[in-house]
Amino acid sequence: MAFQVTPTPTAATVAAAAAIVPAISSQPADLAALFECPVCFDYVLPPIYQCESGHLICNTCKERVQCCPSCRGRLGTVRNLAMEKVAETVKFPCKYASNGCTMRLLHTEKRIHETNCERRPYACPCPGTSCKWEGPLDDVLNHLLTAHKTITTLGGEDIVFLATDIHLPGAVDWVMMQCCFDHYFMLVLEKQERHEGHQQFFAVVQLIGTEKEANAFRCVGLCVGVQSCD
What we know:
CATH class of the largest domain: Mainly Beta
Strand content: 25-35%
CATH topology of the largest domain: Apoptosis, Tumor Necrosis Factor Receptor Associated Protein 2, Chain A
Domain RING-type: 37-72
Pfam family, one: Sina_RING
GO biological process, one term: proteasome-mediated ubiquitin-dependent protein catabolic process
Largest sheet: 4 strands, mixed
Structural class: alpha+beta
Distance between the termini: 13 Å
Enzyme class: transferase
Helix content: 10-25%
Order of helices and strands: EHEEHEHEEHEEHEEEEEHE
Family: Belongs to the SINA (Seven in absentia) family.
Strand order of the largest sheet: 9-11-12-13
């Protein structure tokens, strides 16, 4: 199986690349601090509940504690509607601000951004292993090259994947790395057993980098030396 990774035209890249632009905010820097949870130090976001004395606690911690961590008072189901209204106007820092993210977002945008934030911890992308490594995006490549030395790394724009022992029973993964266009790409070829012994192969090409960098490329797959690509 052969693949070719090529950059897409510049105009298309600009159109496809999604970027989140930080909004300029004139709000006091300490306003978001009013919503800080006293247990986990994350932000208390709507729906906002309070104890009988008016102290706030985030919904996650509320399920784990028996009383208010600030006054030891009883936790109830009373909503603080005034603080919920204030929260609608506050720009909260991303939870990965300590990793370098400078975004400030409304609470309705915060969780969506954090799911895809480039400063979030990344899991090891190597399939078929029990590797529990997590770290910043900038360290993913170094982790793969040092901790997974069995992965073959080649260079050039054309990727030729030589999979051995393809007739082994059960699901099997083959992994390799390709360096081209000043980027590293991980190629994963997966074999799955289908009904009555029929085999299916699936290939994934993943750029080790940001989503914006990945949108600058397209991958064309060609079947070589096989009977069918279905």
